[in-house]
Specification:
This protein is of the alpha/beta class. The chain has 17 helices and 15 strands. It folds into three domains: about 160 residues, Rossmann fold (3-Layer(aba) Sandwich), CATH 3.40.50; about 140 residues; about 80 residues, NadA-like (Rossmann fold, 3-Layer(aba) Sandwich), CATH 3.40.50. Helix 3 runs parallel beside helix 16, helix 5 runs parallel beside helix 6 and helix 8 packs across helix 17. The two termini are about 25 Å apart. It binds iron/sulfur cluster.
Length: about 450
């Protein structure tokens, strides 16, 4: 499966690069705003500092022990955009079919242009399966995505993450120790969690969003649970409700709430589990009454979107079509015309036959690229501030050039390997999702 952004027929050249937009803002050539001028620096400037670096999740707390990248050699830090572009092309040519480069929708244009496949995390992990002869899979995305690619690729294939510090602040909000502790407390409130009642339903089924560590996917696999994506969350919740009285949904509270609400689950039956509070900040009675227990996690990129931005878009662009990602808060999804995954958004724009104005609530790199690819439409990001995902931003072309040239030299840097005791149950949770028959993305 290859999802590529080819220029539409007659497309005028539009610069889809967020990097260039930020440089223009910092240099005073643009009147737009950016969330931090630090974005104009190379991400290596932040490798040794605490936190996720500049961008949408810079206010989040990075867990102790999160992977950190060693210093990028100076030749890559000081190279111009043109030089890096040429070095990447040359290295890819030398490596040929021995390497496949995957680019997430949220990557910067300077990286995506070198990708053999472009898509969301699960599309990319499965796309890698289509290249079983590639010795190396270079995943231009974040850590949990590289782990998923390792789970789904052949044992001889090396999955390489160009910058080890490219984590995901949402995935990091549910660590395995917290989840194990939550499970023990749920057993205290609900009784033995592996014993089915008269109707064959266990007390709770764990469901994790694809945006979680392999350790969490392994936990879910060991406890009868399943993985979901933003495209198939409703199908997966139906699967879980056929097997359990309740669902424990992590790490993204918003995807869980938006999906369950659309299925008719009342908000009062969706208590939140905050891992820093006793009983998750809830009560045993509320947990007994729950239908979906929502983990206290969120995406800092999608949390930036507000109802006020939608109101402003409607006031300034009568007839605008507002599409947001289901990781956005509930009130934003409710105020939008449609909600759907990144792939849903891309398909919706692609399917529009008449010139249309779209206001999009998802990561800025994707929105700018869509605007460049579909010049027949007016496409803009709901958030007027240029603020990319902090961790996606860490995959600078300098890191991509470095890992590719290391591969040319016969070395394999930054290999991501999931240990077998985690990988086996994690694959089970993914296989359950595939067997649950995910439908094509649908509008709300
Ligand atoms: S956009 Fe959100 S969910 Fe995706 S990698 Fe960034 S922080 Fe994680």
């Amino acid at each position: 499966m290859s999802i590529t952004f080819l220029p539409a027929p007659g497309a005028r050249p539009i610069d889809g690069s967020v990097d260039h937009a930020i440089q223009d803002i910092v240099a005073g050539r643009s009147t737009d705003a950016t969330c931090t001028t630090d974005l104009a620096a190379g991400p290596w400037d932040f490798d040794v500092r605490p936190g996720y670096g500049p961008g949408s999740s810079m206010g989040d707390v990075i867990p102790t022990g999160a992977p950190r990248q060693g210093e990028l050699p100076v030749a890559y830090r000081e190279a111009s955009e043109e030089e890096l572009d040429a070095r990447i092309r040359t290295a890819k040519q030398v490596l040929g079919d021995r390497v496949v480069v995957l680019g997430h929708f949220y990557q910067r244009e300077e990286v995506v242009r070198h990708a053999d496949y472009v898509g969301d995390s699960f599309q990319l992990a499965t796309a890698a399966k289509g290249r079983p002869d590639a010795e190396a899979i270079v995943f231009c995305g974040v850590h949990f995505m590289a782990e998923t690619a390792d789970l789904l690729s052949g044992p001889e294939q090396a999955v390489v993450l160009p910058n080890l510090a490219a984590g995901c602040s949402m995935a990091d909000m549910a660590d395995i120790d917290q989840v194990e502790e939550c499970w023990e407390q749920l057993a205290d409130a609900l009784g033995p969690l592996d014993v089915a009642d008269d109707e064959g339903l266990v007390p709770v089924i764990p469901v994790t969003y694809m945006n979680s560590s392999a350790a969490i996917k392994g936990f879910v696999g060991r406890h009868g649970g399943i993985v979901c994506t933003s495209s198939n969350a409703q199908t997966v919740l139906e699967w879980a409700f056929a097997r359990g009285r309740r669902v424990l949904f992590f790490p993204d509270q918003h995807l869980g709430r938006n999906t369950a609400k659309a299925m008719g689950v009342p908000l009062e039956r969706m208590p939140m589990w905050n891992p820093r509070r006793p009983w998750g900040g809830s009560s045993p009675d509320a947990l007994v009454d729950a239908r979906v227990i929502l983990w206290h996690g969120f995406c800092s990129v999608h949390r930036r979107f507000t109802v006020g931005q939608i109101d402003q878009a409607r006031a300034e662009h009568p007839g605008v079509r507002v599409i947001v990602h289901p990781e956005c808060p509930m009130e934003v999804v409710d105020a939008a015309d449609e909600a759907g995954s990144t792939d849903y958004i891309r398909r919706a724009i692609d399917a529009a036959t008449e010139p249309t104005t779209f206001a999009i609530g998802t990561e800025i790199n994707l929105v700018k690229r869509l605007a460049a690819q579909y010049p027949q439409h007016e496409i803009f990001c709901l958030d007027p501030v240029v603020c990319p995902c902090s961790t996606m931003y860490r995959i600078h072309p300098g890191y991509l050039a470095w890992v590719l040239e290391e591969l040319v030299a016969g070395r394999t840097p930054n290999r991501i390997t999931v240990p077998a005791d985690v990988a086996d149950p994690a694959r089970v949770s993914l296989e359950r999702m595939l067997a649950a028959k995910p439908p094509a993305p649908v509008a709300r």
